[in-house]
Amino acid sequence: MANTVLVGAQWGDEGKGKIIDFLMEEADIVVRSQGGDNAGHTIVCGKRKYILHLIPSGILRHSKVCVIGNGVVIDPVALVEEIQALQVHGVKVENNLLISELAHLVLPYHRVLDERLETLRGNSRIGTTRRGIGPAYSDKVARIGLRMCDLVSPKTFTEKLAERIRENNMALRHLKAEPLDCKKVLEAYQAAAEVLRPFVCNTVVFLHDAILRKKRLLFEGAQGTYLDLDHGTYPFVTSSNTTAGGACTGSGIPPQEIDHVIGVVKAYTTRVGSGPFPTENKELGHFFHKMGREFGVTTGRPRRCGWFDAVAAGYASMVNGIDKLAITNLDGLDTIATIQVCVGYQLEGCMLRTPPAMVSDMERCEPVYKEVPGWQCSTACARTYGDLPERARKYIELISELTGANPTFVSVGANREQTIRI
Ligand code: GDP
Ligand code: IMO
Ligand code: MG
User: Fold this and answer.
1) Which of 111, 142, 328, 343 could bond 411 through an S-S bridge, CB–CB 3.0 to 4.6 Å?
2) 114 pLDDT more than 70
3) Where in the sequence of the chain do the CATH 1.10.300.10 domains occur?
4) Which residues contact 301 (CB under 8 A, 6 or more apart)?
5) What is the pLDDT of residue 1?
6) Ligand 1 mean position to 180 CA, how many Å?
């Protein structure tokens, strides 16, 4: 496999972690380049389930190297907890993890601000994960952020943190939140710094050397295209570029080194948090939730569910340059008699083939559906494309035709082996 970027082509939780884990057999290095611990990527190996937030999903493959790139925002305390939880389960996290010295930090005031601002927004809240992601990226853009290189320089970190806590405490008091105790924060973050120090380096040089040595890079996207700060359903988005370009800026790897873009979609659609979702279908949501499916892994919230939206996925294919499509959770539709696929949005008498810019318009879009007969049998044991029932294959071909993307992987269960390469 050449250098490949993998992105979510819907609203996140498409099954990126599972596909990354599967593709790691053919990659040497996996890189996260945006987002933070708002991400929750699930990997199921046999009876064990791992949930990764900041550490790339390649970590379970012991001989591979995982890189957290400069575009990621890192809560050092959360990262240490994640490393330790993996180590308890016998997963090696030593010289196989590298963390960019340029990555910005998520600090306690970011989390408190995220929490307070969301609460104050009431019904117009974004529905964030409350992990401080928006405030941390805001500080980065405002050029007042602290980075990993600061964290591992005790004197610099002490000075900068004290200044930032002093400033933020004014804001916190104003928002009627408890001010932070600088000494306590410093203690916790200095302890985390000691654990993380050996992992921190110039990951740009490491990755460029790896390319020269013909190592194969796999970029693990977090969130999904419609949560992208520029291309998503703004303002109901996250604060990073989740689309393919984010892999380059968030890692320091130039675009000409990227050979493929894999887009991951569920065979239906889900979304957590607020914002427009044209194909949302409450009944389908109840159906999945009753089966114990579709609960967010970071916040435990039930995901909103709906039919496959080919308008959104087709546009995502264009924005990301998707040349391979991975369709996950096909088994979720196994028992459904009639499946709907959205082929257009109807707005004020016009048929839209791309999502409108304004969320107020997107909220008013009526999905236009094509109905297809379900296959009504289990796909969970299918291991080749030919094993799938004919109607399931037709469904995949329809998705391909409507989105202009080439299906290359189909997933029929959460386990590693429940993956079909077409
Ligand atoms: P990510 O954030 O894109 O990595 O996705 P999440 O891990 O948040 O959510 C995907 C969920 O679907 C997880 O619970 C996975 O274990 C599960 N999953 C992934 N692919 C499949 C599949 O093909 N079938 C089933 N039943 N579950 C799947
Ligand atoms: P993975 O990588 C699904 C959503 C939140 C909210 C919006 C902004 O597992 O696909 P934030 O905390 O980022 O400021 O929240 O984005 N969101 C996700 N939804 N999967 C994710 O990550 C998400 N990360 C953020 O629910 O609507
Ligand atoms: Mg997830």
Assistant:
1) 328
2) yes
3) 104-196
4) 272, 273, 295
5) 63
6) 37
273 ligand 2 Cβ < 6 A: yes
Q: What's the CA-to-centroid distance between 154 and ligand 3, angstroms? A: 34
Report the CATH number of the 265-421 domain.
Answer: 3.90.170.10
Which of 316, 228, 314, 302 is CA-nearest to residue 271?
A: 302
Provide the pLDDT confidence category of residue 391 given band limits of 50, 70 and 90: very high
| Of the options 3.30.750.24, 3.40.50.300, 3.90.280.10, 1.10.300.10, the CATH number for the domain spanning 104-196 | 1.10.300.10
Cβ–ligand 2 distance for 134 under 6 Å, the answer yes
Q: 17 CB under 6 A from ligand 1?
A: yes
Mutate to test the pocket of ligand 2, among 223, 294, 328 (most ligand atoms within 8 A of CB): 223
Please state, rounded to an integer, the average pLDDT across all residues of the chain.
Answer: 97
Distance, CA of 221 to CA of 384 (rounded, Å)? 26
Q: What is the location of CATH 3.40.440.10 in the chain?
A: 4-102+199-262
Helix (H) or strand (E) holding 45: strand 41-45
CA 252 to centroid of chain Cα atoms: 19
The three-point CA angle 174-180-184 to 5° equals 175
Q: How far is the CA of 19 from the centre of ligand 1 (A)?
A: 9
Domain with CATH 3.90.170.10 in the chain: 265-421
pLDDT digits (tens, 9 = 90+) for 367-386: 999 999 999 999 999 999 99
On whether the CB atoms of residues 315 and 352 are closer than 8 A, the answer is no
CATH class of the domain defined by 4-102+199-262: alpha beta
pLDDT confidence band for 159 (50 / 70 / 90): very high
- Residue that the structure tokens 């009431």 belong to: 122
